[in-house]
Amino acid sequence: MSDCVFCMIASGEIPSAHVYADDDVVAFDDIAPQAPVHTLIVPRVHYSSIADEVPDGILLALLRAVPAVAEAKGVASSGYRVIMNTGDDAGQTVHHLHVHVIGGRPLGEGMVRPAERE
Ligand code: AMP
Ligand code: ZN
Protein backbone atom coordinates (compact mmCIF):
# COMPACT_ATOMS: atom_id res chain seq x y z
CA MET A 1 0.00 0.00 0.00
CA SER A 2 1.47 3.30 -1.06
CA ASP A 3 0.37 5.25 2.02
CA CYS A 4 1.33 2.61 4.60
CA VAL A 5 4.30 3.54 6.80
CA PHE A 6 5.33 -0.08 7.39
CA CYS A 7 5.22 -0.83 3.65
CA MET A 8 7.52 2.15 3.17
CA ILE A 9 9.89 0.93 5.89
CA ALA A 10 9.85 -2.63 4.51
CA SER A 11 10.63 -1.42 0.99
CA GLY A 12 13.36 0.95 2.17
CA GLU A 13 11.45 4.03 0.99
CA ILE A 14 11.69 5.15 4.62
CA PRO A 15 15.21 4.29 5.84
CA SER A 16 15.44 2.22 9.01
CA ALA A 17 18.08 0.14 10.72
CA HIS A 18 17.04 -3.45 10.24
CA VAL A 19 17.38 -5.56 13.36
CA TYR A 20 16.61 -8.61 11.25
CA ALA A 21 15.51 -9.19 7.66
CA ASP A 22 14.81 -12.13 5.39
CA ASP A 23 12.87 -12.74 2.18
CA ASP A 24 9.50 -12.44 3.94
CA VAL A 25 9.88 -10.11 6.92
CA VAL A 26 11.75 -7.06 8.19
CA ALA A 27 12.35 -6.08 11.83
CA PHE A 28 13.09 -2.57 13.08
CA ASP A 29 12.91 -0.73 16.39
CA ASP A 30 9.65 0.91 17.45
CA ILE A 31 9.72 4.70 17.14
CA ALA A 32 8.13 5.04 20.61
CA PRO A 33 9.66 2.22 22.64
CA GLN A 34 7.75 1.07 25.70
CA ALA A 35 10.75 -0.81 27.13
CA PRO A 36 14.52 -0.91 26.57
CA VAL A 37 13.89 -3.42 23.78
CA HIS A 38 10.86 -2.79 21.57
CA THR A 39 11.20 -4.12 18.05
CA LEU A 40 8.54 -4.65 15.39
CA ILE A 41 8.53 -7.48 12.86
CA VAL A 42 6.48 -6.88 9.71
CA PRO A 43 5.89 -8.88 6.54
CA ARG A 44 7.28 -7.28 3.39
CA VAL A 45 3.85 -7.72 1.78
CA HIS A 46 0.94 -5.73 3.20
CA TYR A 47 -1.67 -7.52 5.32
CA SER A 48 -3.80 -5.39 7.62
CA SER A 49 -3.74 -7.73 10.61
CA ILE A 50 -3.62 -11.35 11.70
CA ALA A 51 -7.32 -11.44 10.72
CA ASP A 52 -6.41 -10.78 7.08
CA GLU A 53 -5.88 -13.63 4.59
CA VAL A 54 -2.28 -14.20 5.64
CA PRO A 55 -0.48 -17.12 3.97
CA ASP A 56 0.89 -19.82 6.27
CA GLY A 57 4.45 -19.13 5.13
CA ILE A 58 4.22 -15.50 6.19
CA LEU A 59 2.83 -16.40 9.60
CA LEU A 60 5.66 -18.87 10.04
CA ALA A 61 8.25 -16.32 8.94
CA LEU A 62 6.93 -13.75 11.44
CA LEU A 63 7.16 -16.17 14.34
CA ARG A 64 10.49 -17.65 13.25
CA ALA A 65 11.90 -14.12 13.25
CA VAL A 66 10.99 -13.60 16.93
CA PRO A 67 13.88 -15.57 18.50
CA ALA A 68 16.26 -14.11 15.92
CA VAL A 69 15.22 -10.60 16.94
CA ALA A 70 15.47 -11.52 20.63
CA GLU A 71 18.99 -12.80 20.04
CA ALA A 72 19.97 -9.70 18.07
CA LYS A 73 18.60 -7.42 20.81
CA GLY A 74 20.21 -9.34 23.66
CA VAL A 75 17.03 -10.51 25.41
CA ALA A 76 17.01 -14.15 24.34
CA SER A 77 17.90 -15.38 27.82
CA SER A 78 16.29 -12.62 29.92
CA GLY A 79 12.90 -13.06 28.25
CA TYR A 80 10.50 -10.93 26.26
CA ARG A 81 6.86 -10.46 25.35
CA VAL A 82 5.34 -10.99 21.90
CA ILE A 83 2.23 -8.99 21.08
CA MET A 84 0.03 -8.65 18.01
CA ASN A 85 -2.57 -5.93 18.46
CA THR A 86 -5.59 -6.61 16.27
CA GLY A 87 -8.42 -4.16 15.73
CA ASP A 88 -9.88 -1.31 17.71
CA ASP A 89 -10.20 -2.82 21.18
CA ALA A 90 -6.54 -3.83 21.08
CA GLY A 91 -5.68 -0.31 20.01
CA GLN A 92 -4.08 -1.29 16.72
CA THR A 93 -2.83 1.97 15.24
CA VAL A 94 -0.83 0.80 12.23
CA HIS A 95 -2.91 -1.40 9.97
CA HIS A 96 -0.02 -3.37 8.54
CA LEU A 97 0.38 -6.71 10.31
CA HIS A 98 3.17 -6.54 12.88
CA VAL A 99 4.57 -8.36 15.87
CA HIS A 100 5.90 -6.44 18.87
CA VAL A 101 8.91 -7.96 20.63
CA ILE A 102 9.30 -6.22 23.99
CA GLY A 103 11.81 -6.78 26.76
CA GLY A 104 14.88 -5.54 28.55
CA ARG A 105 13.09 -5.04 31.85
CA PRO A 106 10.52 -6.94 33.94
CA LEU A 107 7.23 -6.46 32.11
CA GLY A 108 4.82 -7.45 34.86
CA GLU A 109 1.72 -9.48 34.46
CA GLY A 110 -1.41 -9.06 32.47
CA MET A 111 -2.45 -8.67 28.88
CA VAL A 112 -1.60 -5.06 28.45
CA ARG A 113 -1.25 -3.04 25.32
CA PRO A 114 2.35 -1.75 25.14
CA ALA A 115 1.39 1.90 24.69
CA GLU A 116 -0.75 1.82 27.82
CA ARG A 117 1.79 0.29 30.14
CA GLU A 118 3.44 2.65 32.64
P1 AMP B 1 0.04 -1.00 17.21
O1 AMP B 1 -0.53 -0.12 18.27
O2 AMP B 1 0.11 -2.44 17.60
O3 AMP B 1 -0.62 -0.79 15.86
O4 AMP B 1 1.55 -0.60 17.10
C1 AMP B 1 2.07 0.28 16.14
C2 AMP B 1 3.44 0.64 16.62
O5 AMP B 1 4.13 1.22 15.53
C3 AMP B 1 3.48 1.65 17.76
O6 AMP B 1 4.16 1.07 18.86
C4 AMP B 1 4.24 2.84 17.16
O7 AMP B 1 5.08 3.46 18.09
C5 AMP B 1 5.00 2.19 16.03
N1 AMP B 1 5.35 3.06 14.91
C6 AMP B 1 4.54 3.91 14.25
N2 AMP B 1 5.22 4.52 13.24
C7 AMP B 1 6.48 4.02 13.29
C8 AMP B 1 7.66 4.26 12.52
N3 AMP B 1 7.69 5.13 11.50
N4 AMP B 1 8.77 3.57 12.84
C9 AMP B 1 8.77 2.69 13.86
N5 AMP B 1 7.69 2.42 14.61
C10 AMP B 1 6.57 3.08 14.34
ZN1 ZN C 1 1.64 -1.88 4.63
Task: Tell me the helix content.
Answer: 10-25%
**Number of helices, counting only DSSP H or I runs of 4 residues or more:** 2
Uncertain stretches of 5 or more adjacent residues: none
Strand portion, in percent?
15-25%
How widely separated are the two ends? 33 Å
The geometry reads as: globular
> What fold name stands as the CATH topology?
HIT family, subunit A
Describe the structure.
It is built from two helices and five strands. The protein is an alpha+beta fold. Strand 2 (25-29) and strand 3 (37-43) form a beta hairpin. It has one domain: HIT-like (HIT family, subunit A, 2-Layer Sandwich), CATH 3.30.428.10. Strands 1-2-3-5-4 form a five-stranded antiparallel β-sheet, with helices on one face. The radius of gyration is 13 Å and the shape is globular.
Annotation keywords:
2 helices, 118 residues, binds adenosine monophosphate, HIT family, subunit A, 21% strand, alpha+beta
Topology:
Elements: H1 5-11, E1 18-21, E2 25-29, E3 37-43, H2 56-73, E4 80-83, E5 99-103
Antiparallel strand pairs: 1-2, 2-3, 3-5, 4-5
The structure holds adenosine monophosphate and zinc ion (ZN).
